Amino acid sequence: MFTGIVEELGEVTAVEKLDDASRFRLRGPVVTEGAKHGDSIAVNGVCLTVVDLGENEFTADVMAETLDRSSLGALAAGSRVNLERPMALGVRLGGHIVQGHVDGTGHIVERKVSENWEIVTVSLPQGLSRYVVEKGSITVDGVSLTVVDAGSDYFTISLIPTTLALTTLGIKEPGDPVNLEVDVLAKYVERLLGHGVVPRSGGPVA
To answer: Is this prediction's pTM over 0.85?
Structure first.
């Protein structure tokens, strides 16, 4: 479980293509401090498992399902990535509850630069717009953000200078893909309302 508060702007140092997967080596001095084999680290919002550790680096295997559903397949040596370690119990939740399970990918559509922030428009794949609401939470490349405006096939976000400087969202250009994770609470509510709740007596409740 993550919070969407990126700890470090890391870098892909190598990508090994396997038959039905890829192995990534990534540099991140902050997230590798104290890390061990089997730990989770979010890479551009995708929860990956640490396979091996080196000096300020870690490797992770990415299966075909993850490559198909996220933008990780487009990464190459030299790509910058957002990195975050899992949240710890007993600390403040600065963003929102993020699972690291990508729901789909969008693309940067437009960037409007203001004096103190940027408004960025992101495309929404079919089927995700129902989970995105104005002033709701969404995760873009692992960054917890507030939706400014929500349309049927797009949403907008406002990025402050800190987010622009410390995450990949500061360097993404129109056309670049981004990983999207919608608020998991919305998906649970939809399922409960759509299929009903079964009480202990066994009868359905609408």
So the answer is: yes
